[in-house]
Structure formats: C-alpha cells, structure tokens
Amino acid sequence: MNSPTADAQQSRKERERRQHEEEILQAARELFARKGYHSTTLEEIAHHAQFGKGTIYNYFSSKEDLFYGILSGLLDKAVDLAETSMALHGTTREKLTAYAKAILSYSEKNADLFQMIMREVVQMNLLEQSRRMGDLRDRLHRTWEVLAITLEQDIKAGNVRGFDAVHLAAMFDNLLRMHAMQPFRELFWRGTVNVDTMAESIVNFFFEGIQQKGHRQ
C-alpha cells in the first residue's frame, strides 16, 4: 500500500502531466488554426508551448496524435455542454435550446479552429482511420445519448412522435453543428449572427417536425 506521501506525490505528478498535455494541445490548436495542420511542425508546437521537442514525445507520439487529441477534446466538451444543459430544469425544448446556445457560442469563439478541423478531416482521410474513428464515434454517440434522455421522456409522454430518441438527438446535433460552421452562417445568415436567435430558430424548426400533431410545447 502506498503511503500518504507517495499518494500525494503521485497525484501531483498526474496533475502536472495533465497540465503539460493541455498546454501542448493548446499550442497545437493555436498553430493549426493559424497556419493549418500541414504547415505546422512539431518543432513549432514545442517552441510555442515552451517545451523541448523531446518532451512532446513524452505525451504525444506524432503531430497526427496531437490532432486527434484536439478532436477528442472538442467532442468531450460537447458531452459536458450536453450534460449541463440536460440537467437544467425545464421542458425538452428549453433544455435543447440551452444546449444549442452553448454549442453555437462555443463554435463562435473557436471559429478558426472549427474551420481548420473540417478542412483537415477531409484531407487526412479520417474515415479510413478505423481505430481512431471508432473512438471519436463513441465520444460523439455519448453526446447523442445524453440528449436522447429528455427526448425519450417526451416520446413516452406522447409529446413527440415515436421515433428512436438517439436518432432524433443525432439529427438535431448534426443540424446544429452544420449551422455552427462559419461558411454556412455566411451563406444563409446576413449581418451579425445572434447566437440566441439562431439557436431558437433551429430548435423551433426541429420541434415542428417531431412534435405530435396538435401538441404544442
């Protein structure tokens, strides 16, 4: 059994490791968004994070590993936002509106990063990376499962048509993420984008399609 001192030391080392990982990921995020994935080197990431290149390899095996780390972080953030929104008091519509506002606001603040990810995912043939794609898909499905809980309650109550709740959550989330992409916004939304207005429009559109005929939430 470890002594209290040994446990404390191990805990401190783990905190330091997580902090260093986050610092490296943040440096990579900033450079990928600014220069693009292919134009950024590990040396530049190490310098930007104020670490030696060798230190980077203690945490990430390659630049591609860093990219997947960023993707995983973004998907985990979506799960956190979903869990926080679904824990709120209110109707399903109100909870999904809160989630929509949170996602759109987050994507607004990280627009350059989201555009870079969409571009690089295609160029890297992400769908061919079966093992990594499976992990990312599991994280994405976790968001849908969280959103599906409140939808399932409405389905059982007869407020929403009898669709599969997870499929509904996936459709809503994908509709939301499409609107979160800057090129789509510029094409369909003129002038300054108001996150609250966009979120409410998306939720209203979604509920017009899924609510039981004659029922209004």
Structural key phrases:
single chain; mainly alpha; Arc Repressor Mutant, subunit A; Tetracycline Repressor, domain 2
Provide an overview of this structure.
The protein has helices at 4-35, 42-49, 53-56, 63-86, 92-109, 111-123, 130-156, 165-180, 182-188, 195-210. The chain is an all-alpha fold and 217 residues long. It folds into two domains: 1-60, Arc Repressor Mutant, subunit A (Orthogonal Bundle); 63-210, Orthogonal Bundle (Tetracycline Repressor, domain 2), CATH 1.10.357. The longest helix has 32 residues, at 4-35.
Structural class: mainly alpha
The SSE string, one letter per element, is: HHHHHHHHHH
CATH class (first level) name of the largest domain: Mainly Alpha
Backbone CA Rg: 20 Å
What is the tally of beta strands? 0
Global geometry: elongated
CATH architecture of the largest domain: Orthogonal Bundle
Residue windows where pLDDT falls under 50 for at least 5 positions:
none
Total number of distinct structural domains: 2
Strand content: under 5%
Mean pLDDT: 85
CATH superfamily of the largest domain: Tetracycline Repressor, domain 2
Short description:
The chain has 217 residues and is mainly alpha-helical. Helix content is 76%, strand content 0%.
Helix and strand arrangement:
Elements: H1 4-35, H2 42-49, H3 53-56, H4 63-86, H5 92-109, H6 111-123, H7 130-156, H8 165-180, H9 182-188, H10 195-210
Helix pairs in contact: 1-2, 1-4, 1-6, 4-5, 4-7, 5-8, 5-10, 7-8, 8-10
